[in-house]
From TrEMBL:
Signal peptide feature range: none
Name this protein carries in UniProt: Helix-turn-helix domain-containing protein
InterPro entries cross-referenced by the UniProt entry: Cro/C1-type_HTH (IPR001387), Lambda_DNA-bd_dom_sf (IPR010982)
Record organism: Microbispora hainanensis
Source species taxonomy: Bacteria, Bacillati, Actinomycetota, Actinomycetes, Streptosporangiales
Domain of life assignment: Bacteria
Pfam families per UniProt: HTH_31
Boundaries of every HTH cro/C1-type domain copy: 19-75
Amino acid sequence: MATEHVESGELDRRIGMRVRALRLRRGLGLRACAELCGRTEEWLRQVERGEQRLDKLSTLVALANVLGVRDLSLIVEDRLQGMTCTVTEGGRIRHEAVPAIRQVLSTPIYPPQPVDDLPAEGEKLKRRLAVAWSAWHGSARPYTALGAVAPGLLQDALNLHRAAGPSMRRTIWALLAETFQLAQRFLYCVGEAELAARAADRAMVAAEETDDPQLIAISAWTSTMAALGRGQTDEAFEVASTAATYLQPRSSSSQAVLSAWGSLHLFAAIACAKNHRGADAWRHWDLAHRAASAL
């Protein structure tokens, strides 16, 4: 892990040098380039020094557009590690994993593939999800790591769900909810807002079948993020506030539920602020702050 951290820091420095070279080739000053990206001059300075990681693809695309770069590997070559990720004429991201995920989300699996040992396969999927989340949070190449495994995880989770009998259904619903949450996070970060919303909706449906407050809270958080990503602030507020109300009497059951409850109020505050509802925004902000202080 320490070696990976050192390698990641060196990679960030090489990426920063590449950004600086592309900016200078474009004839852009630091401030002008930063403003065109919708960022501060200090942020771009930190990127070029390797002190600020380009870890969100939508930010990377904004920078690529300003620098006149179509192929994102010209900026973050090592981090993509062979993955194809380009910017289209309309300025949208095209990640090679997206068509496979779209196909899995759109194509029914009938009949389901036979599963010899459903509990064992469920445990195996649970371990694979843990590895995928770990890669997403800790890898120097998160888009590569998750893009490579997300379609297969979705396919296998859906197949287990279709093959599950009544005794295993709740367990598989929980795995399915977490798999959809993972897919939503990836799709949101690569700029596929509509597809991310589809995954978030499915995560919410699956979570509700489990009656697990923590899973419902996280899925509601995922749905709210997807709605905000599409600019649907009314929908984001409705989902966040409804889920927070549901969680209110359960918020003391665990720190995870309390954290999710506070995060939902934070999203509700953002939605209110975007709708110019200042008083409501501060009210939800105060509730989020109260939850954070209690953790």
